[in-house]
Write a structure and sequence with these properties.
alpha+beta, 6-stranded antiparallel β-sheet, 6 strands, globular, single chain, Thiol Ester Dehydrase, Chain A
Length: 135
């Protein structure tokens, strides 16, 4: 399967990524770019985006980039730093880049920017790469 076919299949089965309203803007082996718009139901009690929104967008980017190689991969460790607040109506762009890929482990970094190209979060994710191919 091509990287785009793999991600299309993952998205078809991923109700949460669909709820986020994710658009796939670029997909390559080990790299992807996603975007979504922050809606009112994504806000917390401070009237800013819940941290889970940027985390979830980053996690989806990690999943798509790491699986695009054609081997099934799942996260085993992640962390995120929120550096700028996100408001309703903001258009977020997630850029995921592979920094290491071995036989069974991959490391990825995701930067999320708002519509003004301001960095709003940085995410690091480690995945376990299985022997199973996407079919």
């Amino acid at each position: 399967m091509s990287p785009k076919e793999i991600v299309n299949e993952m998205m078809r089965l991923d109700a949460f990524s669909q709820w986020l309203g994710i658009s796939l803007d670029l997909i390559e082996k080990g790299r992807c770019e996603l975007s979504c718009t922050v809606r009112g139901e994504m806000l917390n009690g401070h009237k800013i985006a819940h941290g889970g929104i940027t985390y979830s967008l980053s996690d989806s980017a990690l999943a798509f980039a790491s699986n695009a190689h054609g081997k099934k991969a799942v996260s085993i460790e992640t962390s995120i730093s929120h550096v700028y607040s996100v408001k309703e109506g903001d258009r977020l762009r997630a850029v995921c880049e592979e920094s290491y890929r071995g036989k069974t482990v991959g490391i990825y970094h995701v930067s999320i920017f708002n519509q003004d190209n301001v960095l709003v979060s940085r995410f690091k994710g480690t995945v376990h790469i299985s022997e199973n191919d996407w079919e």
